Amino acid sequence: MPRRSLILQLAAAFGLGAVTALGLALGGVLPADAKPPADALARLKARFVKPDTIPFPSNNAYSAEKRALGEKLFHETRLSGTGAMSCATCHQQALGFADGKVRSPGHDGARLQRHTPTLWNLAWGVDYFWDGRARSLEEQVIAPIESRDEMAMPIGTALATIEKDDAYVKAFAAAFPEEPRVSRENLQKALATYVRTFASPPTRFDRWIAGDANALTADEAAGFQVFAGKAKCANCHSGFAFTDEAFHDIGLPGRDRGRGAVLRLAAADHAFKTPGLREVARSAPYMHDGSLASLEDVVNHYESGIVKRKSLSRDLQRGLKLTPVERGQLIAFLKSLSNEDAPNLPASIQPAPSAVEVVAARTHTVTQDDKQFQPGRISIRKGERAWIVNNDTRTHNVRIFDPKLNFDSGAQEPGETVQIAFPVTGSFLVFCGIHPKMELRVEVEP
Ligand code: HEC
Ligand code: HEC
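^ Cytochrome c551 peroxidase, sequence as received from the core. Prediction below:
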């Protein structure tokens, strides 16, 4: 289910929040990590294990028929105003689902505002586009069709064209037996399902993670240690897909406000979504503006290209200086995340079982250490308040979008506590606008 259906941009105006700095003594609040001290490298490796199933939302479950229809639509040029462009024009599988261009030409040949991103592993994503303005893949996939800059096709016209094609009518009926119609919603669901199957295939790195010590060269393995250690790349490029799904200003020059414009929050200016790094050797050039031509240029940026400004991410390593050997190792490691041969999509799809519901804790205080709400679900009574304590090293932005209750804390700096009153009953999703993987469910009972 698309967890938050409202568009952030529209709801951003209703800021009701107030941030209070309480200067709490935070040390005691931290949950103690009670795990026995295992081998540090083994623990590090465990954080990068590739799942063998793909998550699909409960309101758009996987089926082979949906996938097949989505694949057909992804390559359908009749969805564009010129009749010459499809999703695959800009998202080419052999190029990491990007297109090798700094910025692609759109509908009328003019360059788009931003660089075409890769589409690997988006099933695990939270918000979409470089600035996260789409809250689900279903919402995202329709945007390029209607966008005047991209495919420039009114969706009504597109549906009418497709409906005249018997093969499509049959394919929609097979994919949506409950509601066999060529409709906007079904088109969104089919395209989103296909995009969710873009799970990057395993590489030598995965064999190394699984315990085959010879799967990486000594340099590549050392490069992983630089990546996760000295260079702190894994502060943001974390997990098997190498992204925290959060928004960071990494100091690229330019005037694009990125996430800051969507949230209307200066603390998120110049922040863009951390791209995953799977198959990254195939998708040059890099960054939201396509400004860096090679992985060497990317590493140079992190060492000496960072523009100093207030919105720079606190997760960014300042004054990074690598030796020539370390630099070579880091780049060798980055390349080991790509397959030697052009990567294929998985032949058969294993949908992930639906997540187990967490039991709601009876508490009013929630912490935010290490980009996580703790606990993740609380239950309180109508009229009571919740206190969200920023005991993290990062700036957060606590939000609720709900017809019954809107909340925007603004920038919540480390050490500050946000107070939210819940005058109505219901189940509310609280999340961070900057690190949207952080989610807290608040059950408000009578
Ligand atoms: C003319 C080139 C072009 C075409 C055609 C195009 N895209 Fe894109 N796509 C882009 C660009 C550029 C972005 C980034 C825009 C931004 O972030 O502001 C993007 C972003 C995306 C994203 C978000 C990725 C992420 O990490 O959040 C998805 C998913 C996507 N496109 C899917 C599609 C689908 C599905 C179609 C066909 C219906 C399509 N695109 C057609 C250029 C294109
Ligand atoms: C503070 C979080 C953060 C840290 C630390 C970080 N990155 Fe990034 N990385 C990002 C973000 C955000 C982007 C996209 C920025 C943009 O386009 O404006 C990015 C982009 C990239 C890209 C381009 C990917 C693409 O598809 O365009 C590569 C490669 C990369 N980073 C590698 C690294 C390496 C190597 C390190 C360590 C030296 C590192 N990153 C450290 C957040 C981070």
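Residues 201-335 form a domain with the Cytochrome Bc1 Complex; Chain D, domain 2 fold (CATH 1.10.760.10).
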